[in-house]
Sequence to fold (353 residues):
Amino acid sequence: MKTQNSNQTIDNFIKVVVLAVLILASFSIAQPFILLIIWSIIVAVALYPFYQKVINLFKGKKKGLVSTLFIGVLIALIILPSINMTSSIVDSSSEMIVNFKSGELKVNPPNDSVKDWPLIGKKLYDVWAQASNNLQSFIADYPEQVKSSVGWFFSSFTGFMTTILLSLVALIIAGVFMSSADSGYKQGVLFTNKLTNGNGKEIMTMCTNTIRSVVKGILLVAIIQAILAYAGFAIVGLSSTAGILAFAVLLCAIIQVPVTLVMIPIIIYVFSFADTTPAIIFAIYGIVVSLLDNVLKPMLLAKGLQTPMIVILIGALGGMMLFGILGLFVGPVILAISHRLYTSWVSNEIETI
Fold:
């Protein structure tokens, strides 16, 4: 009997070792593609309701062709605005560099009323006046601040364009995932059932709802704010830099930094060259655009979710700081699952008292 138990222990140990080796080997092989696969799954989950409506519209006929056209249209919708924005940023940057080298790059002088602003008026007026009188001297006096600001912007732009390219590839893979979504969902439920004692369907529903809420509540709102801001910049007379400024708005909105930090300096600058009435209209418009997320985000982010919105926001911010743009989606899902497990555990504890 003892020998039989000993042999069984050895067999179990060998199985665990072999399983561990297989898992580690599989992870090592798939590691270069894990980020792309996760991003593709997120894209597929976010787009699937719309994809299903398109398939139903054609009554399931020629599903492969419809899926290909669906993905093709989405790729075009990403590529065309990205090319337009990139072209605008490159042209604006090139023009600024040429004007700077030739000494023609100018900053409009501040109004005297800037001095009367509380707390920062006098200091802001002096710095602004120095930049308008001699930009080269201003850059020489503040080299680190200028360098860090320009470096941050272009590194952020590079990272954003990398994300766009990754999204295009992920979109193609997501089309494959969506075409076999039913079997993928069933496999996900079976796997989570193993981990959660039969609550797999509930966990899967929570994960999909969380991803879709983050897409609508953060990304969609950020895109809306950037488009509206771009329109305002172009109309008020900042068309040459509208692409750069709109990208700054988009970036701040995605990383959950108040858009007012971008809009307020622009509003101040507009008052320096525009007539009073257009400047006031633009200021009101800019503030409305800046605060738009306060209205849309609660409506879209928490819709259909049982997880508190504060948990989703913390997950989005913390996940993005830890994993980059991908963490914007992974973070809320992880915290949502943890919150669900915690509430279940507490509820069971309460029931047993």
Summary: The chain has a mean pLDDT of 75. The chain has two domains: 10-102+155-175, 180-353.
